[in-house]
UniProtKB/TrEMBL annotation:
<dbReference type="InterPro" id="IPR016161">
    <property type="entry name" value="Ald_DH/histidinol_DH"/>
</dbReference>
<dbReference type="Pfam" id="PF00171">
    <property type="entry name" value="Aldedh"/>
</dbReference>
<dbReference type="InterPro" id="IPR029510">
    <property type="entry name" value="Ald_DH_CS_GLU"/>
</dbReference>
<protein>
    <submittedName>
        <fullName>Aldehyde dehydrogenase family protein</fullName>
    </submittedName>
</protein>
<dbReference type="InterPro" id="IPR016163">
    <property type="entry name" value="Ald_DH_C"/>
</dbReference>
<comment type="similarity">
    <text>Belongs to the aldehyde dehydrogenase family.</text>
</comment>
<dbReference type="InterPro" id="IPR015590">
    <property type="entry name" value="Aldehyde_DH_dom"/>
</dbReference>
<feature type="active site">
    <location>
        <position position="257"/>
    </location>
</feature>
<dbReference type="InterPro" id="IPR016162">
    <property type="entry name" value="Ald_DH_N"/>
</dbReference>
<keyword id="KW-0560">Oxidoreductase</keyword>
<feature type="domain" description="Aldehyde dehydrogenase">
    <location>
        <begin position="17"/>
        <end position="480"/>
    </location>
</feature>
Length: 484
């Protein structure tokens, strides 16, 4: 019922651009279609967001009132959890059980950040300057105010549609910002239901404005818009760089959560069964379409053959299929474009002499499925070793000691995540310090909590999401001085 009404609603959304098909990546059939909203819709959405912000209808509410509405969003998300999961599963092809596991976590973003609404405060400062210019005044104090940026554009990718939307919306709303939301053109469906939920929960008109359109049209217009104060973007490093350039017109602030090429180090003293299983899932889950997926595995030489064989065995045991196919635990890639891109990396690697331990081919069936792929004998200069593939493809390389492992792990322009598997406690923490990544996981992978900051080093991003840093990203600091 909800599903069909969303498929109908998106068809009817006004637009002026191209008609964009929404494709089921499992069957390659069209699910529905919509019209690119066009630049005029972007201007209108920004104007609505600006009017709502200037009226104070949202940020002017006491924090406890914003918090109550955010709790209602979370409660409604729980109520519609099956529908949200079904929409994401249909749209991305991820197993329904996986989508059902993720949605409650997304609702929790609103509860977590609802708690912050009543804890936004600045700091008071005793002014110590007795000489110089300030010294002209006998008695002074200063304090800071934390204020919402204003109108923020939220742009995110297709790999976790509800998750990506909530990770940005919850802190932005808690901070008091007005928002213009642009989901990926491949996966706009769950954002429509989320939009309905937000309205039903009582978020005032104009505070959340949804755009449905392409990145190069709607996204680009939003990013360049002179009346947008900040862009919070999750997506590829390539588009992140375009966003920085497009934002220069009004020097809008930019937060970027970008790509990764995350290393996983497995030492001979690790719990190898656990390391093999988790390192395998750490790349093959969601067909490798996760920003923190560990796509470069480094194994201490003595256990290299054992670990490589173990990971290949796990890869071969995974059952690829659609959400409705019994027993399937891994879905397809999102699109034909992505399938072609990933196969391009694999084919180039084969030509350049990499060894395909397992996989390396598309499944002989409908849908954008690639067999989980393990590659060895990879040269560090190869494109597939350096660039983010965002597919179920992992390279495995041996190392002899800490220095070599760290040097290889850090030999990348990315710095999103890194992992070490070792039972040597001192080594684990020494290595954590040396790895150039915004998140380091020790003897675990794919971990997440709303309270733990997440952000990229190097070309994996600017700024942080989650935790205190997550709400501060949507606030600016004003210093107020007073002569007493
Ligand atoms: P993408 O960069 O192509 O697109 C992301 C979003 O940006 C989409 O909504 C798209 O429509 C929009 N967009 C595209 N061109 C634009 C432009 N010129 N101006 C404004 N917006 C534009 O990324 P993708 O292929 O959809 O997603 C995969 C990428 O996302 C991977 O690189 C992955 O690592 C990254 N990602 C990062 C994180 C993180 O937290 N660091 C999380 C998930 C995904």
């Amino acid at each position: 019922m909800t599903l069909q009404s969303i498929l109908d609603e998106i068809r009817k959304r006004p637009g002026t651009g191209e008609v964009i098909p929404v494709i089921d990546p499992v069957t390659e059939d069209q699910i529905t279609e919509f019209t690119d909203c066009g630049e005029e819709a972007v201007n209108e959405a920004v104007a609505r967001a600006r009017a709502a912000f200037e009226s104070g209808v949202w940020h002017g509410l006491p924090g406890r009132e914003r918090a109550k509405i955010m709790w209602r969003i979370a409660d409604l998300m729980d109520q519609y959890a099956d529908d949200l999961a079904e929409l994401d599963s249909l749209n991305t092809g991820m197993p329904l059980a996986q989508a059902k596991m993720i949605v409650p976590t997304c609702a929790e973003f609103f509860r977590y950040y609802a708690g912050w609404c009543t804890k936004i405060n600045g700091t008071a400062h005793e002014v110590q300057m007795t000489g110089g210019i300030s010294g002209a005044y006998a008695d002074m104090h200063a304090y800071t105010l934390k204020e919402p940026y204003g109108v923020v554009g939220l742009i995110f990718p297709w790999n976790g549609p509800v998750f990506n939307a909530c990770a940005k919306l919850a802190p932005a709303l808690a901070a008091g910002c007005s928002t213009v939301v642009k989901p990926a053109e491949e996966t706009p469906l769950s954002a429509l239901l989320l939009d309905r939920i937000i309205t039903e929960a009582g978020v005032p008109d104009g505070v959340v404005n949804l755009l449905t359109g392409y990145g190069h049209t709607a996204g680009a217009a939003l990013t360049a818009h002179p009346d947008v104060d900040k862009i919070a973007f999750t997506g590829s490093t390539e588009v992140g760089k375009q966003i920085v350039q497009a934002s220069a017109g009004n020097l809008k602030k930019v937060m970027l959560e970008l790509g990764g090429k995350s290393p996983v180090l497995i030492y001979d003293d690790a719990d190898l069964n656990m390391a093999i299983l988790m390192a395998s899932m750490g790349i093959f889950v969601h067909s490798g379409q996760g920003c923190v997926c560990g796509s470069r595995i480094f194994v201490q030489r003595g256990v290299y053959d054992q670990v490589t064989e173990g990971i290949a065995t796990v890869a071969n045991s995974l059952k690829l299929g659609g959400p409705k196919e019994e027993g399937s635990n891994i879905g397809p890639l999102i699109s034909h474009k992505q399938l072609t891109r990933v196969m391009g990396f694999i084919d180039e690697g084969k030509q350049d002499g990499v060894e395909v331990v397992t996989g390396g081919h598309r499944l002989d069936r409908r849908g954008y499925f690639i067999h989980p792929t393990v590659l060895t004998n990879v040269d560090p200069g190869m494109r597939l070793y350096q660039q983010e593939i965002f597919g179920p493809v992992v390279t495995i390389t041996p190392f002899d000691d800490d220095d070599e492992a760290v040097a290889m792990a850090n030999d990348t322009t990315y710095g999103l995540a890194a992992t070490a598997w070792t039972n040597n406690l001192s080594r684990a923490h020494r290595i954590a310090k040396r790895l150039q990544a915004g998140t380091v996981t020790l003897n675990c992978q794919l971990v997440f909590d709303h309270s733990v900051p997440f952000g990229g080093y190097k070309q994996s991003g600017w700024g942080h999401e989650f935790g205190r840093e997550g709400i501060e990203a949507y606030m600016q600091t004003k210093s107020v001085w007073a002569q007493l």
